[in-house]
Amino acid sequence: MATVFIVDDDLSIVKLTKLLLEGSGFQVIGTAANGQIAVSKIISLSEKLDFVIMDYRMPIMDGIEATREILKIIDHLKIIFATADEDIKEQALKVGAIAVVNKPFNFDELLTTINDFSIENTIWA
Q1: In this structure, what is the dihedral angle of CA atoms 106, 20, 116, 38, given to the nearest 10 degrees?
Q2: For 29-85, what is each residue's pLDDT tens digit?
C-alpha cells in the first residue's frame, strides 16, 4: 500500500483528497496547510513515505519552495503538484516534482498518475 502526504491550504480539498485516496487503498499518513508545516512534518516522519500531493499557492511557504526544501533532505520522494496555476508546471518539474495535475483535478487522473509512478518504481526497484 502506497503512503501519501497531502499539502494544501484548502481544508475541503485536503478532506476530499484524503477520503478518496483512502477509499482507493492508499494510506494518508499526514497533511499540512502550508509548505513550512509540510517540510517540518515530512522530514520528521518515521513511516515510509511514497508520495506527496503538493499545492502551489499557500501562505508562509509555497509548494515550489517546500518541494526544494523537502527534496534536499529526501531526494527520492515523489511529489505530485495539484494546482490551478497552469503556468507553474515547468517550474514544478524543474525543482523535482514528478508530475502536475490541474485543479480542480479529475480524481481518476490523480490515481492514474500515482499508479503509473508506483508501477515504474516497482519495475525498477
Answers
A1: 100
A2: 999 999 999 999 999 998 889 999 999 999 999 999 999 999 999 988 999 998 888
pTM: 0.89
Cell numbers placing 63? 509548494
Any domain includes 125: no
Question: Is residue 101 classed as helix, strand or coil in its secondary structure?
Answer: strand
Q: How many domains does the chain have?
A: 1
- DSSP-derived letter for residue 88 is G
In contact, 77 and 49? CB cutoff 8 Å: yes
Q: Could you tell me where the beta strands, DSSP code E, fall in 1-107?
A: 3-7, 27-32, 51-54, 78-83, 99-102
Whichever domain contains 96, its CATH number is 3.40.50.2300
Cβ pair 72, 97 in contact under 8 A: no
CA distance 27 to 25: 7
